[in-house]
Amino acid sequence: MLGGPAPTCPRIKKYPQDGSKLKPVQVEAPVVDLWWAGTPEEIDKYVFALTEASGLYVAGRVWRSDDYGRAGSWVDITTALPGALTPEPGADADAAGVMEIVYNEAHPDRLLVLGAAFHNWISTDFGKTFARVETPGRTLGFWMECKVHPTQPDWLLAKVRRMECEESGSATNPWCAFDLFVSQDFAKSWTNLTANSEGAVTSFWDFDWGATLQRNSEDSFPDETIFATAYESAATMKGPKPGWDKDMHFVISSDFFRSAHRKLVSCGNQFELIGSQVFVALPSDCPTHPDGSQRPVQPGASSSSVVLYSSANEGKDFGQVCLPVRDLDLGYNLVKTHDGANAFLIVDHDEEDMISARAPIGNIYAPGYNNTLYTLSMTRNYRRSFITDFGRVEGLPGVYLGNQLHESFRTDPRLAFEKYVQTKVTFDGGARWQDLNQPDSFRFPECNRCASARDLGKCQLHLHGPSSWHDGQDGRPSFYTHDNAPGVIMAVGNTGEYLEQAADAMCTWLSRDGGATWQDVAPYASIYEYGDYGGLLIMTKHETEGPADSLLFSIDQGTCWHEIGLEEAIDVGNIRVEPSAASHMFVVHGKACEKRPEHPTCTHTRTDANPVGKMYIVDFRPVMGTDWRDCSDADYEQWTNGPCLLGRNYTLSRRVHASECFSGRTYKRPVAAAAPCPCTAADVACEYGYEFAGHDCRAILGIDTSQCEALKGYQMSETHRRLVAGDTCAEVSLVIPDTDGRGHGPSAPAGAPSRGHGWTTFFVLLLVLGGGSGLFYAWWMFWASDSAKATLEETTAPVIGVLLSAASWVKDCVLAMAAQITGRQRRADAAEAFFQPLASGDFGLDADEEELGRAPPVLR
């Protein structure tokens, strides 16, 4: 168990078995992104790598492998894209190369390669052959944003910037605007929806397919439905940087804007479709509600602040989202809950005190049951460059990690905010947050940085989050999880009072139980990835730590880390695996490192212009040789948790911890069995306008709950408690006697299931135990052998039963381990959806501005 002595490995092995070292694949520039395509049986057969722009070009080149990325199979196919490397008439001389690859996950045979100038390329045979097609309206592909239809494989939407924007003075030209195009034949031809509208729409901004929304029925609206924010008059257009604008509106069309569109929300500027909900942001000085009635404007509201509305019925009705705060809002990030049905809000507030206003912080709000009533989850959530340090622990419903500024930042005259970051974890959907515990023992002494501070109660573990990963060349890898590796978290950070930025403070950490306990696995910052459904972990030095001349991997969840030798050391930027993390084949990519006496196998010299790109393709079957073993039925166990999380108890199949075997990409996890659990204090959060103070919920000072329209018809409990969003526990009256915990009358009679909004796709496992004996029992039951577990169950079950019945204080006990298996990859990244000022929108940016319209790349 991780809380005790550091696990020891009986034998470290070196691979490949024949004593050779892996040979690198060289490309002309470092890889910036990878895509996989193939049939359902071989989804990772074809691999595409996009490299950085080199020379005078603004875009890169694309390489293709038709053999799972294996060495010797890579071909630069840019030359097979007619005109891709030839500057086109009417475009700048450097407008050549490839920008991006777009494909429909359900039909990966279809690929759209976006060029920088006036042409794109399409393939319907996994990239074996390509045909050249014109960009929509013959606009520059450099400014094109494309979205595939969720169910129609040949339908595409593309937002493009008009060619007027290429003229001098375009930054202030209102005609520097954006058109929306649709293709129904996979980019062979395009229809201009601005022209289709015959003047009813003069420019588009935000857009998405209606089919992205979880529809209430098949005939809710046709596949042609498009949601968009748009200008309806040329006289109101503001050019490429409009800011929050009352003249922009949220609209819907079901026939590609051929007939009159419908205005859903006046002043609607940006929107997100999450689950069955529509979220729309609009300037806070907008004079009307979505229904057209007069809207009272909050004192101090202006076009620089924003408010949020949401709809749970496909945009038919909207209600203003209520947040328990006095400050105005400047921008939002939305992070989906594990089931994808709702979202946490991370709000950048316009704080009144000057120090807080300058600090890179926001508040996290947990979703409510009527889609508009949100409750405070965390204050002072750390953010940097609009990226927030908050994300899901994938596969574990209700478990999240977040970084918070300690209140001490207010007393620092230097305002060095980054020096006060601390990491927190929640196991109950954001209702309560707690510190990350450092291990009781360490593999590497240098990772134990606060032996004396521990006595003062100031020592804990802190982890770098998404804002660090997106921090340019000095960025550190973020905490990383995957839904096909439930319970596994790898991260870079340090022990101490706060998160440190110094290179010598970095260690790599592993949790096998969803963040409840941790172990140091490397005395430096690593980059990491998971494969074989979480049974295979791989890591190596990140480029910020210098060159890597070997890779480390584990097939026993971190007890043993074996070594793979590399023929040439490289600076590693990332390790990637196909999206479902089912494969045993990885791509390690980076660039040639500088040759020095301490790094003799590096190949880059200072006389070279730029380092070339390098890739290592790690296929574990030949690497392992005779040590490779396919798993059999005996290598899996059925495991049932005792306590519950989010109101459910699940039995699931997992690989036996000590089994050193491989499941293979065709492995399918058996469906878990689930049973409801009686409600305990671990299932509750505080109502709107309240926050935890010890075991009780107290009112947040200065919040006038009467101003929230969403409270009309909502029955608030006299206990000031509600159920955690997504919780489906039974017998709500055990913890909330006067409501159902969801804003309605008393809960159902004892023994009947509560009337909740269930999270029905989860395979969940929870250990909620009080006292030392309970905690020991939990970890033992998770890691011990079957025979040892059976013995412990017989002798301690009565004691554990008594502990679990003490629900009045269980809410402050340790919460740990849950598991969810889904077939779809999700990434823990707090930058999923942005509502930020349109003055820094996704197109027409100056060189020093951030791109905010689309989520940036995630750690994959």
User: Roughly how much helix do the residues carry, as a percent range?
Assistant: under 10%
Question: How big a fraction of the residues is strand?
Answer: 25-35%
Q: What integer value in Å does the Rg equal? A: 27 Å
* Straight-line N-to-C gap: 28 Å
Average of pLDDT: 83
Quantity of strands, as a count:
51
State the major sheet. Answer: 8 strands, mixed
Shape: globular
Low-confidence stretches are 748-831, 839-860
Structural class: mainly beta
Oligomer: single chain
Annotation field: number of helices: 7
Transmembrane segments: 759-780
InterPro entries: Sortilin_C, Sortilin_N, VPS10, VPS10-sortilin, WD40/YVTN_repeat-like_dom_sf
Protein name: VPS10 domain-containing protein
GO biological process, one term: post-Golgi vesicle-mediated transport
Q: What's the topology here?
A:
Layout: E1 14-15, E2 25-27, E3 31-37, E4 46-51, E5 62-65, E6 74-76, E7 98-104, E8 107-115, E9 119-123, E10 131-134, E11 145-148, E12 156-161, E13 178-183, E14 191-192, H1 193-196, E15 203-209, E16 226-231, E17 248-253, E18 262-265, E19 270-274, E20 277-283, E21 306-311, E22 319-320, E23 328-336, E24 343-350, H2 354-358, E25 361-366, E26 375-384, E27 387-388, E28 390-392, E29 400-405, E30 421-426, E31 434-435, H3 451-455, E32 460-463, H4 466-469, E33 489-496, E34 507-511, E35 519-522, E36 526-531, E37 536-541, E38 548-554, E39 562-576, E40 585-592, E41 613-619, H5 620-624, E42 636-640, E43 648-655, E44 673-676, E45 684-686, E46 690-693, E47 696-699, E48 721-723, E49 767-769, H6 771-783, H7 786-805, E50 814-816, E51 833-835
Parallel strand pairs: 1-39
Antiparallel strand pairs: 2-41, 3-4, 4-5, 5-6, 7-8, 8-9, 9-10, 11-12, 12-13, 13-14, 15-16, 16-17, 17-18, 19-20, 20-21, 21-22, 23-24, 23-51, 24-25, 25-26, 26-27, 28-29, 29-30, 30-31, 32-33, 33-34, 34-35, 36-37, 37-38, 38-39, 39-40, 40-41, 42-43, 43-44, 45-48, 46-47, 49-50
Helix pairs in contact: 6-7
